[in-house]
Specification:
This protein has one domain. Helix content is 76%, strand content 0%. It is built from 4 helices and no strands. InterPro entries: UPF0060 (IPR003844). This is UPF0060 membrane protein Noc_2955. It comes from Nitrosococcus oceani (strain ATCC 19707 / BCRC 17464 / JCM 30415 / NCIMB 11848 / C-107). One of its GO terms (cellular component) is plasma membrane.
């Protein structure tokens, strides 16, 4: 099922991006070791590579990916930061996912 593959790839891509950015954040804002930049760089390289695996136009992929990124960021907020999402966080995430689904899976005439 190509839809599940696409969503799964988006989820892994978002995790790579968020993890890489979070590691840089820890170094910059939390005074953690500079060595965190090594896995940070690897994670961000993986993020870019994963984005390149999608078989559709890059602009469409980037637009749709944003919806999945929002959901993953809210999950990160909850799991890593320990902050429970609000109802509005969840509603916004659902709307973002709907947007992703429309962009990626709507019938194409061209």
């Amino acid at each position: 099922m190509p839809e599940l593959k696409t969503v799964g790839l988006f989820l892994i891509t978002a995790l790579a991006e968020i993890a890489g950015c979070y590691l840089a954040y820890l170094w910059l804002r939390e005074d953690k070791t500079i060595w965190l930049l090594v896995p940070c760089a690897l994670s961000l390289v993986a993020f870019v590579w994963l984005l390149s695996l999608h078989p559709t136009a890059a602009g469409r992929v980037y637009a749709a990916y944003g919806g999945v990124y929002i959901v993953m960021a809210i999950l990160w907020l909850w799991v890593v930061n320990g902050i429970r999402p609000t109802t509005w966080d969840l509603v916004g995430s659902a709307i973002a996912l709907l947007g992703m689904a429309i962009i990626m899976f709507a019938p194409r005439t061209t």
